[in-house]
Design a protein that fits this description.
Blueprint: H1 2-14, E1 25-31, H2 36-49, E2 63-67, H3 79-88, H4 109-115, E3 119-124, H5 131-134, H6 146-153, E4 160-163, H7 176-185, E5 189-192, H8 194-197, E6 207-210, H9 231-245, E7 251-257, H10 260-265, H11 269-292, E8 297-302, E9 306-307, E10 310-312, H12 331-342, H13 355-366, H14 376-390, E11 399-401, E12 406-408, H15 409-422, E13 424-426, E14 431-432, E15 436-442, H16 457-465
Parallel strand pairs: 1-7, 1-8, 3-4, 3-7, 4-6, 5-6
Antiparallel strand pairs: 2-15, 8-15, 9-14, 10-13, 11-12
Helix pairs in contact: 2-11, 9-11, 14-15
Length: about 475
């Protein structure tokens, strides 16, 4: 049934590739770290495990291609330079937000759309002042100037904002509430959690939707609890608000799936794939809107870069994604549980766990030594890690660092083995220079057939939609 529905959607999209007038409603979805292999890998994972549709929605869009992502000073971009290219249509150096390579401010899609009278929205699963959303609201030399970006958000031409919260700098002593209060003083209504989003269409003036939790990003989809805010909550609220206030003119809405990237940095395939599924769920809401306004809506999906150098295949000419079905939490959450179980904070409660206890933990949570066979070489390697942690001269806090988390080496090695035996290999824990996908449907989609680089997207959107560029 899902395959039939996908075919019908593809036919429907093909009938609405272009229109005589430009799009009134533009949805711009950016999957942070979402390389082509992440998309294909997610489909394989879904088909084998049932965690999502065998074909993710945007992969069926009628216009599909590849775009390059290099920055002005490197073949491998960071999210700031890539975000600036996607938002402003300008190549810049790694770390720059809303500046060109000569450090001069350049305007972005939100500024262009607002200057032409359109409504504007920016939503993300991470901090509203993180690199990608920042590229649509701010101008600064260094992406780590989080508080400068937060201050610029207060006067940015963004009608609807949404994210996990504000990222703060330790040196300032501020907390996220400091910037929430600043937003309110600047006339921005701040709402916390889905319950407060319900009447958002009746809100006047600018609105900022936050998760309602202390963390400055949403939890991984794979770790989500019932009361957690989701990206779909943000997108639903954004569509309701922007439709209510800008029905006459239309709107531009950028949505980032920010934690696909986190899963890539951690080399955690299950977390990455489920985050991509969550991203696709949010795109479903834009597709629902599209069905109601097929002649006026443009939807684009792309990525800022690929993260992790994901390989489909890890040395054997076969894959077994079904072996990942037993992983029900991210590596971050599994590390927390592992430490709670075997490394209590109070030293007097510590008892050295046996190798069999460690095996039992991973049998329960990853199906290793159960439905997932662990060969002799792999067990010897994992046992060596066990001894390095729990042996007489071991380091119980032995960790593997990545950009966003610090995970137990025992957990990291176990998840790495699970990934490899399932057929997913990672090259490293950072960005690659690989091209990423561009997927487009709706009014004017055919204009993107010739787009081959990330800096070409924003000017093409602006031209189609009639935004006012500087």
């Amino acid at each position: 049934m899902k395959k039939v529905l996908s075919l019908l959607l593809a036919v429907f999209f093909a009938l609405h590739l272009s229109a005589s007038d430009g799009p009134k409603y533009v949805f711009y979805f950016i999957g942070d770290g979402m390389g082509i292999n992440q998309v294909i890998g997610t489909c394989e994972y879904n088909e084998a495990t049932g965690y999502g549709p065998a074909v993710v929605n945007f992969s069926q869009f009628p216009v599909r291609g590849f775009i390059t992502t290099y920055s002005s000073n490197s073949l491998v971009t960071d999210s700031a330079a890539a975000g600036t290219a996607l938002a402003c249509g300008v190549k810049t150096y790694n770390s720059a937000i809303g500046l060109n390579a000569d450090e001069k401010p350049v305007s972005n899609l939100c500024e262009w759309a607002k200057a032409a009278g359109f409504g504007t929205g920016v939503a993300t699963t991470v901090g509203i002042n993180h690199a990608t959303p920042a590229s649509f609201i701010a101008h600064t030399r260094v992406r780590g100037n989080y508080e400068d970006i937060a201050v610029q958000y207060m006067t940015a031409p963004v009608d609807f904002g949404a994210g996990g919260g504000f990222i703060v700098e330790k040196k300032s002593g501020h907390n996220p509430a400091y910037f929430e209060n600043m937003a309110q003083k600047n006339g921005i209504t701040v709402l916390h959690g889905p319950e407060q989003f319900k009447d958002i269409a009746s809100q006047e003036g600018r609105v900022l939707c936050l998760s309602g939790k202390e963390q400055n990003s949403l939890p991984y989809a794979i770790d989500r609890k019932e009361d957690d805010t989701t990206l779909s909550d943000f997108v639903s609220a954004g569509i309701s608000y922007l439709s209510a206030h800008f029905a006459d003119k239309g709107f531009f809405f950028m949505v980032e799936g920010g934690k696909i990237d986190n899963g890539g940095h951690a080399n955690d395939a299950a977390a990455c794939f489920q985050e991509l599924n969550d991203f696709a769920d949010a795109i479903d809401l834009a597709l629902d809107f599209y069905m109601q306004h097929p002649e006026e809506t443009l939807i684009l999906v792309t990525a800022d870069h690929e993260t992790g150098g994901l390989m489909l295949g890890s040395g054997q000419y076969e894959m077994h994604p079904d072996r990942m079905a037993a992983q029900h939490m991210s590596m971050d959450a599994l590390t927390e549980l592992f430490r709670q179980t075997f490394i209590p904070e109070d030293e007097k409660d510590y008892i050295t766990p046996s190798w069999e206890q460690i095996k039992g933990f991973f049998r329960t949570h990853l199906s290793l030594w159960d439905s997932v066979e662990v060969d002799d070489d792999a067990e010897a390697s994992l046992l060596e890690t066990y001894n390095s942690i729990f042996g007489l001269e071991g380091n119980r806090n032995s960790s593997v660092e990545n950009l966003y988390s610090s995970n137990s080496k025992m957990v990291t090695d176990a998840v790495d083995y699970l990934n490899k035996t399932a057929g997913y290999g990672w090259s490293f824990g950072s960005h690659s220079g690989s091209p990423v996908g561009l997927y487009v449907t709706g009014c004017g989609a055919d204009a993107f057939v010739t787009v081959k680089d990330n800096a070409q997207i924003a000017p093409t959107i602006a031209k189609l939609a009639g935004y006012k560029r500087d």
